[in-house]
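Collaborator request, handled under Task 6.
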Amino acid sequence: MTDPSEAPMTDRPVTVAIIEDHPVVVDGVTTWITTDPGKRATVVASGDDIDEVLAGPGGEADVLLLDLQLGDTIVVDRVARLCTEGRRVVVYSAMDDPSTILTVLEAGASAFLSKHEAGSHCVDTIVAVATDRPYVTPSVAGALLTEAPHLSVQERTALLLWFQSMSKASVARRMGLSEATVRQYIDRARVKYAKIGRPAPTKTALLARAIEDGLIRADEIGEYRSHAAGDQ
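Structure tokens returned to the collaborator:
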């Protein structure tokens, strides 16, 4: 089987597998894709059972377009497993409350597309995801901007110590971890912000986001600066 994490060839359309239990929705999405002026994508499989779709041509699709409710079953828990397998998942759902959106994005989904979005965003989202580019639709962006990412205790601690002017090596010693693990915690925080449409590529930007969202207090940064200096 072709590794689904490999970027699609630039000289062919992006291949899409639609996992959806309403035929009218499948037909609608297929129409959006086939009538795209650039012919940038093509549907290679569809069905209402994840495993059956993946067992056929859908298993090699560049992108999976996944509805979260298949029949009476909510499949939010499958998102993480699919992403761990290296698949690019675009969640396409009417369950577009901020909590659900954050849950699937943090589970690894490449994008969230609300069924209330205009069809014009569908192909753009699929193609962006297939080429590992971020794409946040307008209505979802508005919902996500009101949310802060959920950081683990270890992620917050690593950020706090790093913000207190510690080097990553010093943070690692203070936390009793490897420097690689500390880097991973900091990178995870950046990824979580990027996935909700609020990128923080620099240390200053990440600190501003964390203070803005109440994850870090401004007085915590100055309070231990002298201790941090001693750890350099």
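The cover message to the collaborator said: "The CA atoms of residues 129 and 210 lie 27 Å apart. Residues 1-9, 223-232 have pLDDT under 50 and may be disordered. Please let us know whether this matches your experimental observations."
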